[in-house]
Write a structure and sequence with these properties.
Layout (H helix, E strand, L loop, with lengths): L1 H12 L5 H6 L6 H14 L4 H7 L8 H14 L4 H13 L2 H14 L2 H10 L7 H14 L1 H10 L7 H11 L4 H4 L9 H10 L9
Helix pairs in contact: 1-3, 3-5, 5-6, 5-7, 6-7, 7-9, 8-9, 9-10, 9-11, 10-11, 11-13
Length: 208
């Protein structure tokens, strides 16, 4: 915890003289330290030619949080990095539950249109676990809130995801109200629609 906190402090202070010490933390035995070292290096030296060389080996890290953090870092340096894209897609589809969650969250942070389409397609899986579906919905809203609306509305009928969908729709704001109202008349979606309205800001007072 001390090492993680120290790395966070360095990233906040933009302390570039410590880059060598931070790079050494990439091989720390603690996964949280390695992932924080990746994040700190990305913040302090985002344009460094050495960053890709330093981070690429960590795509093979045994810890899912570290490897997906490495992939996100590499994509922020170069959005065309196919190895990093492939790692996130593979982890999101075939990994253990925690690896899938980390990969989907990283796609949401990356914010690329290609990632949006990939995640939207994953929602078509009828066997999808609730935790994965909710993570995907959250990532979609982060990548493109407006384009996520149809997916969020469609998920209002799912008891395992309606609360997440309602909250995300509420975060988008009053502009979704007209889209939500018809779902009040759909028995399967009515509860989710009501929850969405609860999350939306109140309408402005009418002029006297």
């Amino acid at each position: 915890l001390v090492r993680v906190s120290s790395l966070k402090a360095l990233s906040q202070s933009k302390a570039t003289p410590a880059l060598l010490d931070i790079a050494a933390s990439l091989s720390d035995p603690e996964p949280d330290v390695r992932s924080q070292a990746i994040t700190t290096l990305t913040i302090l030296s985002p344009q460094s030619p050495a960053l890709t060389k330093l981070i690429s080996p960590l795509l093979d890290d045994e810890d899912a949080k570290v490897s997906t953090c490495a992939a996100l870092c590499l994509l922020r340096v170069d959005g065309t990095n196919e190895k990093a894209k492939a790692h996130l897609r593979s982890s999101a589809t075939f990994g253990e539950l925690d690896a899938r969650v980390h990969a989907i969250q990283a796609m949401g942070e990356w914010g690329d249109r290609e990632a949006f389409h990939f995640l939207a397609n994953e929602l078509q899986d009828r066997q999808i676990e609730p935790a994965i579906k909710n993570t995907i919905l959250t990532a979609l809203a982060k990548v493109n809130a407006q384009d996520s609306i149809s997916h969020l509305l469609n998920s209002l009928k799912d008891s395992a995801s309606r609360e997440t969908s309602a909250r995300l729709l509420g975060d988008i704001g009053a502009s979704v109200t007209d889209s939500v109202m018809p779902f009040l008349n759909d028995e399967a979606s009515a509860d989710g629609a009501l929850r969405t309205l609860e999350h939306l800001p109140p309408p402005p007072p009418k002029p006297i």
